């Protein structure tokens, strides 16, 4: 704001000086010079005010650019993907006969929706049993991945610490792949 105030003070000073110079008793020979000088002073004030706004905004613009990046680490997300997702969704997330293309899917999701889908939405009772009688989570995942019981269904991952702790990293990895910011393969840590 200080640059704007400085510009306004400078414009007022210039306008008062122009007014003093253009007084009829001092400049009786050229009565048309007063409006031209006044317009010139006003334009100079507007130009200075415009520059002041430009000087004040770079820091917030950089901050907004940083906030635009998805939360999480793409490298850690890649590691989680390789550990838990690659068997169904393919090496680079582009889908298989058993599971959809995640790169296309993640483009329409924000971080909050992604977390909800991965951790909660697909919470199903795999064998139709009450939750208390179900086998271990690891055994259920293995059964799903090998397609021993029924058609493959996406499990809920909220009880899996490796996924739960890094779900935003997984989102960062898939988002960067979907937006073309990162190619297939292992990202740089």
Can you describe what's shown?
This protein is mainly α. The protein folds into two domains: 66 residues; 107 residues, Cytochrome Bc1 Complex, Chain D, domain 2 (Orthogonal Bundle), CATH 1.10.760. About 6% of the residues have low confidence.
List descriptors.
189 residues; mainly alpha; Cytochrome Bc1 Complex, Chain D, domain 2; 60% helix; rod-shaped
Topology, please?
Blueprint: H1 2-21, H2 33-56, H3 58-68, H4 74-89, H5 102-106, H6 111-121, H7 137-146, H8 161-164, H9 167-178
In total, the number of strands is 0
Taking pLDDT < 50 over at least 5 consecutive residues as the criterion, the unreliable ranges are 123-133
Largest sheet: none
Basic shape: rod-shaped
| Cα-based radius of gyration, to the nearest Å | 32 Å
Q: And the CATH topology of the largest domain?
A: Cytochrome Bc1 Complex, Chain D, domain 2
Helices and strands, in order, run as HHHHHHHHH
- Tell me the number of structural domains: 2
Briefly, what CATH class of the largest domain?
A: Mainly Alpha
Task: Describe what is shown at a glance.
This protein is 60% helix and 0% strand.
